[in-house]
Amino acid sequence: MQVYLPIAEVSVNAFLILGLGGLVGVLSGMFGVGGGFLATPMLFFIGIPPAVAVATQANQIVASSVSGLLAHFRRRTVDFRMGTVLLVGGLVGSGSGIYIFNYMKSLGQVDLLVQLSYVVFLGIVGALMFVESLNAIRRAKKVGPQPRRDRRHKSWIYAMPVKMRFRTSGLYISVIPPLLVGGLVGVLSAIMGVGGGFVMVPAMIYLLNMPTKVVVGTSLFQITFVAAFTTMLHATTNYTVDAVLALLLLVGGVVGAQFGTQIGLRLKAEQLRILLASLVLAVCGKLALDLLLKPAEIYSLNPVLN
After folding, report:
1. What's the pLDDT at 306?
2. Which of these, 31, 35, 225, 288, could form a disulfide with 24 (CB 3.0-4.6 Å)?
């Protein structure tokens, strides 16, 4: 069944989009990730323009983040003060990212910017995840008690000015590092159409030393509003948010997440991480090949002079 996407200006098979959304939902349920950093490149592969894929995926992130945020709100595992600081940085970063996006679009290079960002970012994240997963598997195979890692506080963070007390997280630190983390996530959201949780969560744990129990909920609080702001900016400045595409992806993702959760319960954590890392590297490799290989059909548009 073919469906015309009015903003993307292409016709696609509705079941293909539903299947893609379902696949991302399965990955979300299995690995506990939003899937935006995998869904957006997959949209490239089926012919969706990168600018539309980025803006539409940011729209889908809002819906998935809200449901998760409500669950954490009921459990009282959201640090709203820390989330607000991260949000301020995220809004500034998102605005800056949209400016860069629009500037590259005016030069006709926005597709290249998006694809290069994914190649670099997925390559780095995938490689780090793969190495960490292999080390975790090796440690799991060793017999006997394993030495505990002592995660020491970063003294330079506690020496920075403009400190604020975050009671829910039990921290008294400078607001500068959270602002910078939020700003980076905002830029990624605008340019790559991702929530940025897979960057923000490790940064909150290892850089800001936040308790793990409040990290995910606080991250979702920031992502929800930054993704909504990014979607609004894309819709009002670039007109690249395709509601039909977003709806199909959302329906498929909701269904797929249920199956992914059941699959994830049957696999070990180390196996899940190495599978996710392998998938990230595979997508990165495909994007890199598309950029490097000569296209099968080469054409140019020459103006006709009267």
Report:
1. 45
2. 35
